[in-house]
Amino acid sequence: MKLYYSPGACSLADHIALHEAGLPLELVKVDLKTHKLEDGRSFLEINPKGYVPALQFDDGELLTENVAILSWVADQKPELVPAGHLGRYRLLEMLAYFSSELHKSFHPLFVPQASDADKRQARAAVEKKLQFVATQFKGPYLFGAHMSAADAYLFVMLTWASDMGLDVPDALATFAERMRERPAVKQALAHEGLN
Fold first, then answer.
1. How far is CA 158 from CA 49, 90, 106, 179, 184, in A?
2. Has this prediction a pTM greater than 0.85?
3. Residue 6: CA atoms inside 13 Å, Cβ hemisphere, count?
4. Cβ neighbours of 86 (radius 10 Å)
5. Do residues 149 and 91 make contact, with C-beta atoms less than 8 angstroms apart?
6. 26-39, pLDDT tens digit by residue?
7. What angle do CA 160, 164, 170 make, to 5 degrees?
């Protein structure tokens, strides 16, 4: 299968999770400004939404959106799903929060023409949401002793927060360092030229 990605974008979460699951993949780099692939083809022909991640299976089927892809990866390796009778739903709950609340809150910080006021508001929103996330930990990882697919997504957003000089709770900074030591994370960062 092929993972369409852009270095350091949210697709890094899927990249990490796919390595954690031990699934073989081919990486296809996307220039998000031009919507071009390295071979010159238009990414819009593959994913009309125009953004990453996109996971293309060997039969040509395409899956997009982090919630869907990370859920699919977790289904392939159940260790990436939290334990308990609500484990799968707790995973979906956290992935949905990350996607619809935390990730979305970063948007003005990535838009050069956003006003200073919009950027200040975004910084405050992200920092508040990170404080909430820090209270949700059940162990060294979000759901306890084992990494879940949601931890990969959180790691990416913590990387963004750190790069932007946002205030990150100490517990989340420690978590990000723990994640950075995982072989799958090291491998994904190396593949994307981010180490």
1. 25, 20, 11, 11, 17
2. yes
3. 15
4. 11
5. yes
6. 999 999 999 999 99
7. 75
